[in-house]
């Protein structure tokens, strides 16, 4: 948990510009399994990261997860939750697991 907190702080300090952090600034006691960021070109960023050998999380690329969920079976009507639909196109996750060292996190930041 301490490791995840350190990576969260590292990402928070290093990533700026057009990226929006979706974790609350007031969540000092929280431990994030994933560090979620928002960017208008999220899918292009994910693709570019993959070319560099980085596999960032894209678990939320559908308004209802997983991405292959039959929305009609869930009685979801496209357009009924436009904010969720927009976010599903603009968010991705940075890893915080124990195998990510600060050096690895810096490589992720460099690619971003």
Shape: globular
Got a strand count?
A: 3
The percent range for strand residues is 5-15%
Structural class by SSE content:
alpha+beta
| N-to-C span | 24 Å
Give the number of helices. Answer: 4
- Name the strands of the widest sheet in spatial order: 1-2-3
Q: What pattern of helices and strands is seen along the backbone?
A: HEEHHEH
Helix content: 25-40%
Low-confidence stretches: none
Determine Rg (CA atoms, Å): 15 Å
**Could you give a short account of the major beta sheet?**
3 strands, antiparallel
Overall pLDDT: 88
Can you summarize this structure?
This protein has 112 residues and is α+β, with helices and mostly antiparallel strands. The chain is built from four helices and three strands.
How would you characterize this protein structure?
The chain is an alpha+beta fold and 112 residues long. The chain is built from four helices and three strands, in the order αββααβα. It has helices spanning 2-14, 42-51, 82-90, 102-111; strands at residues 20-21, 34-38, 91-95. Strands 1-2-3 form a three-stranded antiparallel sheet. Helix 1 (2-14) runs parallel beside helix 4. The longest helix is centred in the first third of the chain and has 13 residues, at 2-14. The two termini are 24 Å apart.
